[in-house]
Amino acid sequence: MSKPAYKRVLLKLSGERMAREGSDSVLSMRAITHLADEIISVFDSGSEVGVVLGAGNIIRGSEAAELGFEEAQAHSMGMLATVVNALALQSVLEQKGKMTRVMTAHHMESVAEPYIRRRAIRHMEKGRIVIFAGGTGNPFFTTDSAGALRAIEIGADLLVKGTKVDGIYTADPVKDPSAKHIAEVSYSEVLNDDLKVMDGAAIALCREHGMPLMVCSIEDQGSLMKAIRGEVLRTMVVNK
After folding, report:
1. How far apart are CA 132 and CA 113, in angstroms?
2. How far is CA 181 from CA 21, 81, 88, 166, 205, in A?
3. In angstroms, rounded to a whole number, what is the distance separating the alpha carbons of residues 146 and 143?
4. Do strands 181-182 and 184-186 pair parallel, antiparallel, or not at all (unpaired)?
5. What is the DSSP annotation of 26-57?
6. CA atoms within 13 A of residue 112's CA, in its CB half-sphere
7. Are 226 and 174 in contact (CB under 8 A)?
8. Is pLDDT at 194 greater than 70 in this prediction?
9. What's the confidence (pLDDT) of residue 94?
10. What pairs with residue 185 in β-bridges?
């Protein structure tokens, strides 16, 4: 096997990718299988892999707060929803023969291990795909922030934000056909121009710690590895 492009990769994937678009179901086996295959492609390339999932297919904390739930409680609901997604992804990955661990910031030992940084690193060194659930464990922080935090903590070489589009554009490419793709941008430009890649806390964390961020599409089969290899459009966010 050739040397992987990155020794350790943290994938930040939207919970919405766990459900089939246009369906009322919060979980789609077809959608989860697609995600699992994309994750496995990175793992099989030789990289150690960690995954942080959102909960947009079930409920986000901000959405629960808008419904009238107490805000801190609402965020806890969203964090717990990420555990449901993590267990679903774990099941599919293990059906495909991969060893996994779900580690959560909220202690629930009957279904997942508590998140311990050194243990997470050891799991990855032993060839296990680690799925980080429960957000940061604190309300008012998004799973984007959790992804940035875990990437920094485990010493990832690359943080990947998998989306519907193939990177960052000057405007919403769906609404504005004249929008231009941005191949590389600095963290300062993302913050100053409010490019909406990740929330501000996540971007600030990455900038402070020099964590390279790749924004790419994971819609098509094989798109994730093609983006990592630079074979398709993607955007790299770096310190300049």
Report:
1. 10
2. 24, 33, 34, 8, 24
3. 5
4. unpaired
5. S--HHHHHHHHHHHHHHHHTT-EEEEEE--TT
6. 29
7. no
8. yes
9. 98
10. 237
Q: Evaluate whether 205 touches 152 at the Cβ level (below 8 Å).
A: yes
What are the structural domain ranges in the chain? 8-238
The residue with greater pLDDT, 196 or 238, is: 238
Residue with tokens 């309300």: 139
Residue 205 makes CB contacts below 8 A (sequence gap 6+) with 145, 148, 149, 152, 211
Residue that the structure tokens 């589009």 belong to? 165
Among all chains, which residue has been given the structure tokens 């990592």?
A: 228
Superfamily of the domain at 8-238? Acetylglutamate kinase-like (3.40.1160.10)
What does the mean pLDDT of the chain come to? Answer: 94
In this structure, which amino acid lies at residue 50?
A: G
